[in-house]
Write a structure and sequence with these properties.
alpha/beta, Rossmann fold, 8-stranded mixed beta sheet, two-stranded antiparallel sheet, 6 helices, 35% helix, globular
Length: 254
C-alpha cells in the first residue's frame, strides 16, 4: 500500500472560527473544478499544500511530437484565502483518483488533515445532468442536516428529493466530514454537457454560493465566458438545423 502523506503550510493559530472549506474536483461539465478554480483566482488564494502523488492520476503518459512529457506529480492542491471577513481553504485537482479505494483514502486524509483548522462548514461543488440545453439552470443541494437545507432553500437552492448518490471525492469529502462532526453541503449545478466543458453550471453555482456565504464574488469574467458559450452553442444549433433542412429538401435525379 502506498502512503498518502502531505503537509499543509498554514499556521493553525491564524485561523479563526469562521473558516470555510471548499472543494471542487473534475466531474460532469468540469463544473466543480471550474467553480473552485474561479474562487482561487478571485480571492487571490495562496497555495499552502500540494499532493505529489502521480499514482492517483490516470494511468497514461502524454507526448508532444513523439516525445514523452514528464509525469505530472502535483495532482491536488490546497489554497488559503481571506475574503469578505471570512477565511477559506479551497481544495482542487486535475483529476479524480482512478480507483474507489484511492478516492476514499484521499477524501479521508484531506478531512483528517484540515480538521485541525476547525472548519465551520464544508462546501463541495458538483453537477447533475439535464437532457436538454438551458440558459437558466437550477442548483440543487444536499446537506448533513435538515436545517441546513432550509437555509439553502432561502437562497434558491432546491433540496435534492428522494434517494440519491453523489460519486467521487466531491461527495466523499462531505461524508467523511460528517463522521468528524463537521457540517457539510454539496451544491450541484445542472449541466447539459456531461462530457464537455460547461460554463453555465459553474456560474450558477458561484451565484448561489455567494449568497449562501454572504460574500461578494466578482463574477463578471465567468458571466462573459458563459454568455459567449451560450451564443456559440445557439449558432451551432442553428447551423445544424439549417444543414438538416437542406438535406431534407434535396431531390434525387435518375
Amino acid at each position: 500500500m502506498l502512503d498518502l502523506n502531505f503537509v499543509v503550510d498554514l499556521d493553525p493559530s491564524i485561523v479563526r472560527d469562521n473558516l470555510i472549506f471548499v472543494a471542487g474536483l473534475p466531474g460532469m461539465g468540469l463544473t466543480g473544478k471550474q467553480a473552485a478554480d474561479y474562487l482561487i483566482e478571485q480571492f487571490n488564494a495562496v497555495k499552502v499544500c500540494s499532493v505529489n502523488a502521480p499514482y492517483l492520476a490516470s494511468p497514461v503518459i502524454s507526448s508532444h511530437d513523439g516525445v514523452v512529457e514528464d509525469l505530472m506529480n502535483e495532482i491536488f492542491k490546497l489554497y488559503y484565502a481571506e475574503a469578505g471577513g471570512k477565511q477559506f481553504l479551497i481544495f482542487t485537482g486535475i483529476t479524480q483518483p482512478t480507483s474507489p479505494e484511492w478516492q476514499h483514502q484521499l477524501s479521508y486524509k484531506i478531512i483528517d488533515t484540515i480538521r485541525v483548522y476547525r472548519p465551520k462548514i464544508i462546501y463541495t461543488f458538483a453537477a447533475t445532468p439535464i437532457y436538454s440545453y438551458r440558459w437558466n439552470v437550477n442548483v440543487y443541494g444536499i446537506a448533513t442536516r435538515r436545517d441546513l437545507l432550509d437555509e439553502l432553500r432561502v437562497h434558491g437552492v432546491i433540496p435534492f428529493k428522494g434517494e440519491g448518490v453523489i460519486s467521487g471525492v466531491n461527495g466523499l469529502l462531505v461524508g467523511y466530514g460528517k463522521q468528524f462532526g463537521i457540517d457539510g453541503v454539496i451544491l450541484l449545478g445542472e449541466t447539459y454537457l456531461t462530457a464537455g466543458r460547461d460554463f453555465i453550471a459553474p456560474l450558477s453555482l458561484l451565484r448561489v454560493f455567494s449568497k449562501v456565504i454572504n460574500v461578494e464574488i466578482d463574477l463578471r469574467k465567468m458571466e462573459d465566458l458563459a454568455l459567449s458559450f451560450h451564443k456559440k452553442f445557439y449558432e451551432y444549433v442553428k447551423e445544424e438545423k439549417r444543414e438538416e433542412s437542406e438535406q431534407e429538401n434535396l431531390g434525387y435525379i435518375s
